[in-house]
Automatic annotation (TrEMBL):
It comes from the Bacteria. PROSITE patterns: BON (PS50914). This is Osmotically-inducible protein OsmY, contains BON domain. It holds the Pfam family BON. Keywords: Signal. PANTHER family: BON DOMAIN-CONTAINING PROTEIN, OUTER MEMBRANE LIPOPROTEIN DOLP. Residues 52-119, 128-197 form the BON domain. The lineage of its organism: Bacteria, Pseudomonadati, Pseudomonadota, Hydrogenophilia, Hydrogenophilales. Residues 1-31 form the signal peptide.
Length: 219
């Protein structure tokens, strides 16, 4: 498998300490074919990348489950063929193997390994993470200034740490980070964005054009 180096375009770790503030607003639930179609149409990834992301998550998750079993708790998230690994593993060898399995998977361009060396979190902790993810998404939707489209930023939470992924401009990344870091329960924010220029973002949003797999821009 051939992977394209992303060091020039991918910001791997930009960690911001979280400040707990009261949460206001609720998250509107969208359902039905029209909502799903609108979401896909406004996604900045290519249609091929979206299909690949779903397949990558399934393949990598299955490999990890087969090789490491339930002694680890590892979540696999793929966005634009970049894999984010989060969760816990008891040994460094388990963490390294999970990354290796991800890198060997077809169509994976790069891997961001954020697995912590620890025992798996409790069900209560995971429920809290799900709640935090929902709260961050709700605040994205309810932002008053419309600094970015909520569906352009993917949110993953693990043990109170929020990871943000997406094809975004730096302005959008900063706005999303500020919302996430001021959401109740968030300990810190890790940015795993690919940056695109403002002009490219406007073109994609206006025309529904498909972005390149490796957008131009400096990390």
């Amino acid at each position: 498998m051939t992977r394209t180096p992303l060091r020039s375009t991918l910001v791997l770790f930009a960690i911001a300490a979280a400040t707990a503030l009261p949460l206001a607003g609720c998250f509107p639930i969208m359902a039905g074919g029209a909502a799903v179609t609108a979401s896909v149409a406004s996604d900045r990834r290519t249609s091929g990348a979206m299909v690949d992301d779903e397949a990558i998550e399934w393949k990598v998750g299955d490999k990890i489950a087969q090789r490491l079993g339930d002694r680890v708790h590892i979540n696999v998230t793929s966005y634009n063929r970049i894999v984010l690994l989060t969760g816990e593993a008891p040994r460094e060898e388990d963490k390294a193997l999970a990354e290796q399995l991800a890198r060997e998977t077809d169509n994976v361009r790069d891997v961001v390994n954020e697995i912590q060396i620890a025992n798996p979190t409790s069900l209560g902790s995971r429920a809290s993470d799900s709640s935090i993810t929902a709260q961050v998404k709700a605040r994205f939707v309810n932002q008053s200034n419309g600094a970015f489209a909520a569906n352009h930023v993917k949110v993953v939470t693990e043990n109170g740490v929020v990871y943000l992924m997406g094809l975004v401009t730096r302005r959008e990344a900063d706005a999303a980070t500020q919302i996430a870091r001021t959401t109740s329960g968030v300990r810190k924010v890790v940015r795993v964005f690919e940056y695109i220029p403002e002009e490219e973002a406007r073109r994609l949003d206006r025309q529904g054009a498909e972005p390149k797999d490796t957008p131009k821009g400096n990390p």
